[in-house]
Amino acid sequence: MSDIGSGDEGSSSQKYQGMEQGSEYDSGQQGQMEQELATKMLQIQSKRFYLDVKQNRRGRFIKVAEIGADGRRSQIFLALSTAAEFRDHLSTFSDYYSSLGPPNPDNVPEDGKLKSEMMIKDNRRYYLDLKENSRGRFLRVSQTITRGGPRSQVAIPAQGMIEFRDALTDLLDEFSTDEHAYKPDLPEGRHMHVDNKNFYFDIGQNNRGVYMRISEVKTNFRTAITLPEKSWARFRDILSDYCDKIKQPAGASGAPGGALGVQDQPHPLVGNNTQQDGGTSLK
Fold first, then answer.
1. Does the predicted model carry a pTM greater than 0.85?
2. Disordered: where is this region (predicted)?
3. SS3 245
4. Residue-level pLDDT at 6
C-alpha cells in the first residue's frame, strides 16, 4: 500500500490567515516589507512542498507550503528556532516509522494516530501526528494560535520525512547563524505629532540585529535615521542630559545648563577654547 496521506486528513484548502494579521511574520502590510532569501522545492509522491526562507522587519522565518495533486494549497509558518526543533522531531518520527511493520488495514488505530508530539513557540502551538489511514501513513503538522483563528496544517507522506528533514537542515545551516540574536517579540511602533511634523518610531530586525528607525515626516518631506540596539541607552542618556540642562537655571559659569557631564565632549568650536590678549587669558 502506498504511504500517501489522505487529502482530507492532511491538508486544508484555506489559506492560513492567522499569521498574516499582526504576527511576527507580517507587519500588517503584507509583502511590502517582506524579502525572500531562499526557496527549496520537494516532490514527495503526488505532492509538492515549497520551503521558503523569508525576512521582514521582525526577522527571519520559514514558510512551508503544500500543493496537493488537485492544486489545493496549505501553509504553515515556522520561526527559525521552531524549524530547528521541528527538524529534530522529523528524525525521531522517521526512526519510529522505520521500526513499524507494513500497514495493516485490519489493525488501524481508532483515531489513526501512531505517534504524537507538540511544540510551543510564543503564542503558537504545533501538533505533530504520525497517522495512518486507508491510503497509508503520513505526518500531519498542524499550527494554531492562542488568540483564535483557523487551524493551518500540512501533511508529509511518511516516506518523505527524511528528504524533508534534509532540505530543512540545509536552509537552517545557511540562515540560522544569527538565530541566537533573534527576538520574536519586538515592541510595537510609536507615533508622535509635533507642530506640522510627524515622528515615527519603528523597531525592526535584520541579520545584524535589532534596530530603531526614527522617521520625520512632513507633507512633502521624509527623512529617517537608524539606531542599532546597542546605542539606544547612550542615545537616551544624551537626550535626557539635554532635557535636564535646558531646564536648569544659569550655572556658575553664567551659561544655561551648568557644567557638562564627565563623559560629554564639548563641540570643538565652543566650550574650553581660550584666547590670548596681551598675556591675559580670556574665557
1. no
2. 1-33, 250-283
3. helix
4. 45
